[in-house]
Amino acid sequence: MSRKKLRTAEPTGAGAAPTPTDFASGVFSDEILLHILAYLSHRDLTRLGTCSRTWHRLASDQTLWKRLFLRRFPLECLAQPIPAGSPPAGEVRVRRRTSGMAGPIMRERRDFLSMYILQHNWNAGNYVVTNIDVSLPVAAEPVLEPGGVRTATDIDCALPVSTSRHLGTAPITAFTKDVILVALASPDVAVWSINHRAALGSLSRISVEPSMVLPRVCCIQLESCSALGHPHLRVVAGYDDGSWTVWEMWGHDGLSQWGCKELITVTQAQRVGLVAVTMMDNIVVTCSSQFDVAFHRITNALKRDNTQRRWESTLIHRLRGSTCWPPVDLHLTRAGGKYALYIAYASPSYGNEWNVSLDQITFSRADGLISSKHFSPKTTKVPMTAEFTGIRFRHPYLVAPRRDNTVHVYTLSGAQLTHTTILYAHHAAVTALELDGVTAKLITGGIDGLKIWSLRNPVKPISTVDRDWIRQFEKEESLDQIKRPTYVGFDEGRIVSVSESLNGRLRSGTFCGMEERREIEAGPLVGLKIFSFLDES
């Protein structure tokens, strides 16, 4: 016969022994406990915070995590006093962290606990991945008149089973904190919400004549209109017939109903395809496959009868080159009333070698072209015969991967473009890259995964995410059937990658928050992956 354990009554009242919670809050003051906790590591503080509410409050103190953050991530822009109005010691605002909050958290520099978690996850490769198939065309409600409002159409973002179509080229993608734009083999641009993991609608050209052959999108860029006084987004898309279109959309943040309108479409008589496009304020810069760089200013002016306003384009300046050596990257900056355009491109040299070149064009709306500069790095002793697979310039860094699996890094300092280092980490050619010059963060993507670099210390990658590519590489016999990332973008809390899936592949994982395993029929699909570094389950 088993005996039950007798329970003794615990003493209560003035002579009762203090509980652990009473010991923390009654015996020692918070100042003494925080002084003791300052000797603990981030792992010890995390374990201690799970003991009780009192210890969780003390272990979440901002002064503790500020010291840990600045000790491990010594960034000069963050090594300053906490701004006024920050939470007092031991008091933390309770909220569910999401990757969409990473940007405000890093800019405000108040919640050092969340800042530490975010940067630790980046360095350790801890993330939550979401897979979305964006290969299906996104429908939008018809617009009755040009410039009208398009309403959002709810599209099921679950992985389709039987619908797919062949894509002749890689998808063209652009990314910002709220939306992702994907253009397939059509003139339309699909708009997807990151927070809702669903399609909002599509951007279509209304001013194109029905008899014309539908062009294909070659390049896209997103631009925020916050500098113009309203929270809208503008999208510029360049096409293979030399034309370009500007849209404006709103409701992408989920606070209101999504809508968009076409502002202007500019066609070219020569019908030479565009390879790069960029936009800032009302300035649009395009680069064609013949290295014809055109500077446009768009304005909303009245018609001649003064009854209706319409958008018009004015050519500010045009630069013509003898030939174009892709890849090409355009980066537009503003300083006061002047604009600086940086054109990074590949250039051949002697002995069948390839090098990079950088042009800086300074102009203004009123005066047009002001000055131009050309930068070329000095030749190195190492032969560079491999062609470039991509190029990106974000001041002061220029990054250019080559077909020999290397990534070359250059730095612009004054009037000199210097070859800084070569990154050796990929087992195959880099097919996608993105760069942030302010934080010196670089992400390169290939069949062996996405690698995160810090150009301040580019000895080895900080971490590697999405290792599914290398597992597919080991199983496939033909390199042509491997699924490669064709685009990668990132912000403070997320990485977005787009790739073309292989044929007849059985995939499993988390699709729109659900564990699923589905068979994909023949035909390449466009897969979108979102890696979130601050999401809490």
What does this structure look like?
- Residues 1-14, 76-81, 140-168 and 502-524 have low confidence and may be disordered.
- The strands form 8 sheets. The protein has a 4-stranded antiparallel β-sheet, with no helix packed on it.
- It is mostly beta strands and 537 residues long.
- The chain has helices spanning 20-27, 30-37, 42-48, 53-59, 62-72, 102-108, 112-124, 468-475; strands spanning 128-133, 172-175, 179-183, 189-193, 198-203, 217-224, 233-239, 244-250, 259-266, 274-280, 283-288, 292-302, 309-320, 328-335, 338-348, 354-364, 368-375, 392-394, 397-401, 406-413, 416-424, 432-436, 441-446, 449-454, 463-465, 485-490, 494-500, 506-511, 514-519, 526-532.
Count of the domains: 2
- Helix coverage percent of residues? 10-25%
Instruction: Give the uncertain stretches in residue-range form.
Output: 1-14, 76-81, 140-168, 502-524
From the alpha carbons, calculate the radius of gyration and give it in angstroms. 27 Å
Output mean pLDDT. Answer: 77
CATH top level label of the largest domain: Mainly Beta
In short:
The chain is mainly beta and 537 residues long. It is built from eight helices and 30 strands.
